[in-house]
Amino acid sequence: MPAFRKERGPGIEGLDFYRILGDDVLRLPAGAVARRLRRTVSLAPLRSLSVSEFSFSFGNLSRVREALKLQILPYAATGSVELFPTPLERTSRSCRGLAWYVASGELGFPAPPLEVENLVWPAPLPLVSEIGTEGVTMWVDEENVCSLLWEEGLPSLYRWRPRDKATPESELSWLDNYCRSRNGELKASFVWDATQSDPSTLLGIIDRSLKVCPWISTVNLSTLALSSAMGLERAVGLLSNVAGWALVLGLFVLGGNALRWNRAQQDLFQTRELASDLYKKTFEPDRTGRVPDPLRLARDILAERAGDAEDGTLEDALSELGVIFTENPSMNVTLDILRYNAEGLNCTGSAPDMTTVLAFRKAWEARADLVQVENTQNVPGLGYRFDLRVRGLTPSGQQ
Length: 399
Fold this sequence. Notes:
Elements: E1 15-21, E2 24-27, E3 39-44, E4 50-56, H1 61-71, H2 73-76, E5 81-90, E6 95-103, E7 117-122, E8 135-140, E9 144-151, E10 154-162, H3 168-181, E11 189-193, H4 199-212, H5 223-239, H6 244-282, H7 294-305, H8 314-327, E12 334-341, E13 344-351, H9 354-365, E14 368-379, E15 383-393
Parallel strand pairs: 1-3, 3-7, 8-11
Antiparallel strand pairs: 1-2, 4-6, 5-6, 8-9, 9-10, 12-13, 13-15, 14-15
């Protein structure tokens, strides 16, 4: 797999960099915009991202995407997850590379205010030059702590935590334990704190990373790039079978889709602003700044004001958990962390496959008002790790 190369890539020449913080796009100050600006790059601290390697005996990107979709069929069928293949080696008969998976609802990134192509990269990705081929690169900003674990020059695990619930030290400790559980060790680490470090230093790190890993410049986790790439590949296949006028028609359709996508993004941004304003007027009139998830915060506040009786007690939660495992003796679910507070029950665990995770969630649905599975990751050797949120628990005796 061509991860680190002896030959040098072009670095950051012709690129302008931004970082995403909530609904804001903050430019990394680097003087004037590049004279020959080709593209902009947005560094995104994604919450739902997952990454894995792939290798197939065919090179058509459409077929690669279909094969990867089969691996996440329960989510791909509902459109809740988007995947972005990054080919590293590709011929007409084979394709090897990385597959990035992101929750569809997280892809509404605001774009930089420049009329050029915008790339979206996971924030820890272009920090790899500081660790070599093995270790962890970590991005820390005002709201996020996210990290990439690198093995043999390629990312193998992505992890995100909110800044108010995690520190770089606690995340490095978790990753070290993870490596030890696989009979390995955390060989190197690099932490970039965007709130304290000099952005010009960051640009130097990115430049070195692009020179040793040129494939990073081909990563783009944006829906517009995805639709454009797939549309172009379909058009190329069509050109070999039909007349040229059909390709022209397809380009017009692709252009119309891009315009509709842009309009939909503007509507989504306005809707988020309205929801944030409504939350502040209703619950926190003195609050300033952006509200990251007004619906969830409002739901939790209403549940708290309604009293703890609706969410039961810790004894009720443990009792229901015991009933679930009693009714499903073959359910192979391991719970590593179990938390209970006024909001409800939160647990972190693992299962051998996604079907078991979904079955565990379904077992809770008859016992609570809200059940959500979050942060699902396919961890080699451990199966699928997941977080489960249970709200509005109703004990069996009261149903």
